[in-house]
């Protein structure tokens, strides 16, 4: 059998013998009767939490319960963008920690997650928007994060294919974070699953949580489609299903669930070598290594737990793309999908203990869940292991909405659908 470590030598050896020696990337484990920690949700956040729980904090008996299959949720249903170009003090340190962890992830996991720091360019179209981006860039630099404010000539040199001459919203410049970029989404899930499995974590697929088990008001386990499983602590990392799963424990969350659609076109020759976002509408685009254009926009406006969207949002997103770069109008969209976003009341996440003893929450990621994956896992693992928040995630308290400490990055107020 091939080595547990991937290398150029193992790839060549397997090529010579028909790739018959590869081991499964992770075990398809059967659930045990009891664990020290159960993570509900086998997406990027849940798998990263499990890995860091055992690798960094030395917790041994861990299970990740996934109702479907690894890579079938939001971690495989996004537009792959990673960045740390936030403005508020509650967000910048956390997302910069995530970006620093992305930069080292492939070496840490010994897995090709296709981390590509190709740059993220946010366009601005007015003097007021320029000033807002300058403020954001200054806030980033004060936290030691790279940011460059570009004028129109610099943007034209970087992305000459944009519509500079006839656009309804003239492009005046942009805010560039060169360290931002993209990461192959499902490879992140596979890499974390493989690494966690190698350290003894049980990854249990097709195991849906149907309820919680209590003793003396404390959660002591879960009821699942594969039977009851005991646990000292239970962590929820179920994205758009957070409200539904928390309700099984009698907990009401300040979260709404909305579907966010993503789109992929047919493969074309190299065209866009960075990530571009439209400042006059919600549209963002990059190009995958296979040549397809990957893009998205606004969430659908209605609450849902279904992984599908509706045609008006498809039209709206494509209109944003045409306004920004009309030449993509002849490219055919091959497929699109929906991920269920757990939209919090201020657009920022929650990593905290709940009022129910034994139950911990990782939720409210809105649009930012994928880019946060490594830091989310580390901070949630810290919380589960030490019953205290990680320094980078300390502002993400569940009670901040009651105490007036909201982290409203977009300034939209308590309207989840606007975040």
Structure report:
β17 (350-353) and β18 form a beta hairpin. The protein is globular, with a radius of gyration of 22 Å. It is of the alpha/beta class. It has helices at 8-16, 44-55, 92-109, 127-142, 152-158, 185-198, 242-247, 311-324, 373-386, 400-403; strands at 34-40, 62-65, 81-82, 120-124, 148-151, 173-177, 181-182, 202-204, 209-215, 218-224, 227-236, 255-267, 275-278, 283-287, 292-303, 333-344, 350-353, 359-363. Helix content is 27%, strand content 26%. Strands 1, 2, 8, 9, 10, 11, 17 and 18 form an eight-stranded mixed β-sheet that branches. An eight-stranded mixed β-sheet has the order 5-6-4-13-14-15-12-16. The chain has a two-stranded antiparallel ribbon with strand order 3-7. The chain has ten helices and 18 strands.
